[in-house]
Amino acid sequence: MSAALPTVRGDNMNKCILEMPSYTYAQKAEKLLRSKGIPSDIKRRSTGCGYVLHVHTDCRAAAHMLDRYGIPYVLRENGGSP
Amino acid sequence: MIVNFDNAATTYPKPDCVKAAVYEAMERYGGNAGRGGHALAAATSEAVYSAREEIASLFGAEPENVVFAMNCTHALNMAIQGIMTGGGHLIISAMEHNSSARPVAKLAADGRITLSVAEVYPEDEKTLASFRSLIRPDTKAIVCTLASNVTGQILPFRAIAQLCRERSICFIADGAQACGIIDVKLSDGINILCTAGHKGLYGITGTGLLVTDGSFPIAPIMQGGTGTDSMSLRQPTLPPESLESGTVGVIGIMSLKAGAEFIRRTGTASIFRHEDAICRRFMHGLSADSRITVYRSPAARYVPIVAFNVEGMTSGEVAARLAEEGYCLRAGYHCSALAHTMLGTENGAVRFSPSYFSREEDAVRLAELIKKL
């Protein structure tokens, strides 16, 4: 379910939105990232139902961490609206 | 005076922390968990997730693999029907409650599965041999209670789990009479643990759990709103939401969290020791009366339940007489046709089941009363 990281590099890669399959996974991901020093916020999707994780500092590390722990997500590039 | 010795049906009283959790949930968690993004919904969603974490910790699971259900029967139906979709062979024990026995009997009667029933003996080796002899190449699952709700006999579930693991068979466990009283973990080899929330876990009635290790996908038996992907008419596939269509029972869930915390703080060893001591005092009190039959064998291990009969009286008559004195015990067949058939108790039995809040002196007085019947 996880998407490949975008090839774009630069400051924008510090922030991203991760679309989560459910609130449960959003909560699990947020707690995991927080324990690894990567702050994020759970938000309601701006359109439709579901939850996203706003990552504020290190998107690549966040995605790597979720992959490592088998937490499914879909990466929305550079904070693009899901 | 009410003295409850029918805790195998549902525990009463509940711990103070559970009562407080119910009140707190009413006061603070008035949103709909996993729906909406406003403060009330977010607080409720966080609270429900914290309950998943607590329960996951109790059973050695991941939070997303904790599914809230209405009761153990609901959880068992989800597990059995969700695993046996597509058919196959299934084995149950001869000690199963109707919560397992009826769903599998229905599937078998409809020609959707084939079914075998393994005999249960006081000796674990013989019970295990019975299960082993019934396994076929197309055996898909074994459903087994961890402890009988009639006699309290503990089945050799870790050895049965090992049989399943060696053959990639799904092991579905009914933990209704064991969880909170003996230590139960998914690492025992259980693939899907189904249990009541309102018995040994001390939650309120209307709560149950399905806890899975995720190794066998469970097809939902019910579809509906899950709070995600709402424009799709297809049910999500990931638990817990895939198995929790509709609004979850937040108040019950928070009571269950508090109950699980109570179990963790108190310890199953301490709970078992206390309840087992009460059972032993009770049985000792009955032992001098030759009219009384207690359904226990020295070769078996038991959770704190004592099934008995008094010669010359039906189980219903005994329970009714005791009820006149304020003692609550369950008579009849305990929704367990298979177990009573196996025991040969054609008129049922009386079941004595204490809780952590029961007192030895009440059990002693009850035994004295029974001897005077």
Task: Domain count of chain B, please report it.
Answer: 2
Name the chain pair with the biggest interface and residue counts per chain: A-B, 15 and 22 residues
- What is the CATH topology descriptor of chain A? Alpha-Beta Plaits
Average residue-wise pLDDT of chain A? 82
Gyration radius of chain B, to the nearest Å? 21 Å
- Assembly state of the chains shown: heterodimer
What is the residue-mean pLDDT of chain B, rounded to a whole number?
A: 97
Q: Give me the Rg of chain A, rounded.
A: 11 Å
Helix/strand/pairing category of chain A: alpha+beta
The CATH superfamily of chain A is identified as: Hypothetical protein rpa1041
Strands of chain B, total number: 13
Question: What's the main sheet of chain B like?
Answer: 7 strands, mixed
Report on this model:
The complex is a heterodimer of chains A (about 80) and B (about 375). Chain A is about 30% helix and about 20% strand. Chain A has about 80 residues and is α+β, with helices and mostly antiparallel strands. Chain A has a four-stranded antiparallel sheet. The radius of gyration of chain A is 11 Å and the shape is globular. Chain B has eleven helices and 13 strands. By secondary structure, chain B is an alpha/beta fold. In chain B, about 55% of the residues are buried. In chain B, the strands form three sheets. Chain B has a seven-stranded mixed sheet, sandwiched between helices. Chain B is globular. In chain B, helix 1 (about 15-30) runs antiparallel to helix 7 (about 250-265) and helix 3 runs parallel beside helix 4. The interface of A and B includes residues 23, 25, 44 and 50 of A.
Q: Which features does this protein show?
A:
A: about 80 residues, alpha+beta, Alpha-Beta Plaits, globular, B: about 375 residues, alpha/beta, Aspartate Aminotransferase, domain 1, Aspartate Aminotransferase, domain 2, seven-stranded mixed beta sheet, four-stranded antiparallel beta sheet, 11 helices, 13 strands
